[in-house]
Structures are given as structure tokens and as C-alpha cells.
Please model this.
Amino acid sequence: MESFRTKIRWSFRYSIRILVELLKNLWKYYFTPYPLLLILGSIRRIIRRLKIIWLAKPRGRPPIHENVVDLIIEMKRSNQIWGAQRISDELQLMGINVSKKTVLKILRINGFVPPRTRFTPPSWRSVLDSLHRYWAMDFTTVFDSNGIPLFIFAIIEVPSRKLILINSTEHPTRNWLVQQFRNCCIADQSFPRAMVHDRDGIFGQWLPGVLAKFGCKSFKTSPRSPWENPFVERFNLSIKTEMLNRLVLVDNTHVRKLCVGYQDYYNRKRPHQGINGVIPYFPDVGNENIPDIENLRVTKSRELNGLVTHFKLAA
Model:
């Protein structure tokens, strides 16, 4: 009798919890043109949990633990722009191995339908495959609250995805760009053998000579071929999607501070899909002991001025 009452209590509590989360999804956290999918997803979650509580476990592959399912839903709810691969990488950092396909299935069942991409970018085979390491640099543009354009300059080390340097200015000039190269040396960053960049007007005929002084060779991409420099182009999209497009940018000083904060997050906490979910500065994170799923406890911290919720296993 006690077991029967316990099952009744568990079923009731979990059903109430899912209904409360559904209201949060519909009215506060997750905006979607398909609210019916969220409602159907909540019903499926309740039915799934009730089957586990009341019915005997079937034979075959064990299902994903409900604590992990709840964590995946919470990650998606807290970070709306995260896709299945990003969530899988974040779980991997906590020692929880869930494939992208499984995460995608869980999101679809629960009504969190990832947006479809408009096109698939062409594949790109780098001409620098023979090099051990090389950098890629590029400018991207944002506008402050007064409508003044600000130019954000970034340098990325391609194999490790480390963000070597990021800075912003209202007036990008040759002297300012050369000073950024000097700043890399001041920060004890050794220049690689090659630097990939596009044919922007600021990267004039003088650039190869300046890079040669740092022991680096200039590689220009083909005209109108951004896919030949995809890593820094993808970074420009990431920083805008995750931070810059979601904040009011006051001035250049404000943007510069935001970029410094994003550099720390990008290098020390954010997993990167192109290197199998590894963090650039901590490649071994997530390879420790497997956590206790039955007593799964995580801590959440707000990053990037509260725009991103970072998950970490509780000590």
C-alpha cells in the first residue's frame, strides 16, 4: 500500500511540475509559432514518466534517464539559441554522453523544434592543411545606440579555436591594425606561419610586409569567397547571435568591455562543435569520472551579462 501511495504522490508531483514548466515555456521562456507542439510535448513527458513509475521496465536498450531528459529541456529553455549539437557538447563537458541525434529527438518530442537552415554552405578544403597551426582574422561591424558603426577585429587560431585577440574601434586604420599585432606579441602570443584573411580594403598591399616582420605569411582568400575563411566568419556570427545583437551597445568603450568578457567565455567555458565539443583552454574537461545520474545535481551561472546560462556539475 505504501508503494502504491508513493507512486501516486510521484505521479501527481511530476505532472504538476511539467504543467508549470509548460506555462513558463509558453509565456516567458520559449517563443514559437507552434505552441501546440509544446503542449503535446508536455503531455508526452508526463506519459513517459508515468510509464516508468507504473509499468515494468521492458527489455532492450535502457532509455535516457529522466534526470538527463529534464536537464536537456532546462538547457534549451534557458538558452533558446542552443541547438542539439551545442547541448550535446555541454553535457559532454559534465561527463554525460548523449549524442546529437538523441538530444534532437528529445527536443522534437517535447516541442522544441530547431529552426531549419535556409541553405547548406559549401564544403571548404583549406590550402593550409600542411601547416600545424595558423591564424585567421577578419572585421565585423555593429552599430552603437547613436547609430555610429563600430568595427570589431578578431584573430582566431584555427586548429584550437582559441580567440587570440578581439578589439573594437570607430576608425580602423593601418596603424591601429599594426598595433593589434604588437598587442599579440605583448600577450606572449607567438605568431604562426600563416595568416588567412579576406580582401578587405584595410588589408592593403602593405599587409604581407608587416606580417613578414612577425614571421608570418599572408594568405588572401578568393574574391567573394567567405567560405574560404569559415572559422572567423563563424565566430562573427557567434558573437553577434549570442551577445551583440541582444544588447543595447552604448559606445565603443562598452563594446570593448563586452568583447573582453566574451573572449574569456569563448576560450574557457564554451564548447566548440568544430573540435568535437572541446574547450580551447581546457581540452580535457568532461573526460573525468562519469557522474551519478540518479542523484544528478547541477549548478547554473549567468554569463555574458545574463544572456547565457552556463551549466556545471555540482561539487
Observations:
- The longest strand covers residues 135-143.
- The mean pLDDT is 84.
- The two ends are 37 Å apart (CA to CA).
- The CA atoms of residues 103 and 227 lie 28 Å apart.
